[in-house]
Amino acid sequence: MFLVLTVSSDRTHGYPIGILISFGRCADYYLRERKPLRIFVYADMASRVRYYNDTTGQTWGDKRCHDLCVNKADLEIKALVPHLAAMLR
After folding, report:
1. What is the pLDDT of residues 48-59, one digit of tens each?
2. Using an 8 Å Cβ cutoff, are 42 and 2 in contact?
3. Best exposed site among 57, 58, 65, 70 by fewest CB in 10 Å?
4. Residues with Cβ < 8 Å from 33, sequence gap 6 or more?
5. What's this model's pTM, rounded to 2 decimal places?
């Protein structure tokens, strides 16, 4: 998991036009043309699990902590998005 903080600017006029913070896989790739400041925040899995459990009082990976769980092993995110959007309407 990584964090992409993008402070974009209009290269012609030089003023800021927005800030985007994106978490997730491939965000650096999808935002590459925007020339983001890319910050990779990482930790080993044991530290991530311990931090989550200690911070939330819940158990890492417990599906009951989420409203919807999606196993994307055989799905493309692009195919999933319209279904999620329809569900949220």
Report:
1. 899 899 999 999
2. yes
3. 57
4. none
5. 0.49
